[in-house]
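Good morning C.,

I know you're traveling, so I'll keep this short. The sequence:
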Amino acid sequence: MTKVKIIGAGFSGLWTAYLMAKKGYNVELEEINYPGFGASSKAAGILSFQVPKNMIDISLKSMELYRSLGDDILYWHDSIWLPKSDEFNCALDIVNYLSKNNIKAKVVYNKEFDSIFVKQGIIISQPTIDIGKALNILIKRIEDLNGKIINNDQKNDYDIVIYANGPWIQDSLNLNGLVKYKCQAHSVEGKQINSIIEDDINEYYYVPESNKRAIIGNGKRIILSKPEDGFIVDSNEVYKILEKISYDYKEALNMYPVNSWSAPCITTCDGYPIVGRIGKNQYVLSGLNGAGLTLSAGLSDLLIKIIEGKVEQPKYLDPLRFNDNCNEALEIFDNICINKK
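The tokens, ready to paste straight into the viewer:
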């Protein structure tokens, strides 16, 4: 039986461990803290379709895989998406592609939704994920399939080693093109909106949790020298985001923060994930934070197909594609018009 070691028990590592154990691999998943440590357990929960067109199939595959965990994992919402004007034609391509895949998506002009006036935008039906349930189910299924979750570095021999340890990948491997940055989100209370809002123009997102509480965040990114610094919360940021939200929804000025959290994240020079082989029997997988929840399940499925030789390594996801290091944190959402091949 092929023995596999996976380093990092965030969603990328958990999905890879589960799918490989399901296929009969002998899997050991190493996590020195606890499953979901880092950004995975702190995600806002959006499974987003606002990605470059060539990545939508990965999002759809992730949706299918999360749905397979149970009926109470996905919660569907109407999402108000406000793309930048110079990306609107690319957004229209995404709308058409989603519609062909039976996902509700339509363009709206000069229309009001739940006190939000949309001059030019897109309404998409997309899910959020119950993070806690998804983590617990994945852990249980791995263990039920005789996979092991270990918290120390075993000195065993492995046929395959997969690095899925997010912002700690740079500490483990000498790969170019990676940059660590801080992801941060806030829970706020007040009179809430029923829809998800993803405003690319003013750079913020809004995810309703209940009729009194929501999660908010923005596109501001602070580059980190070491991952651990990503856990330091900037509590003043929440008021800046609420001010941005008030451009669309005046009631945001009456909301107040109840909780804030942050975590270290990782991205690449072009914002695209890294998935594939880095050496003999060694592989790496990072869906990248910001898009990690959206892409990790689908990318885990892709990585296994690469390992088994069922698909060729996609060049635009090749972990070895960079010659230099990055000096800015660019997420895959930042330019939906870039469709790499």
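Safe travels,
E.
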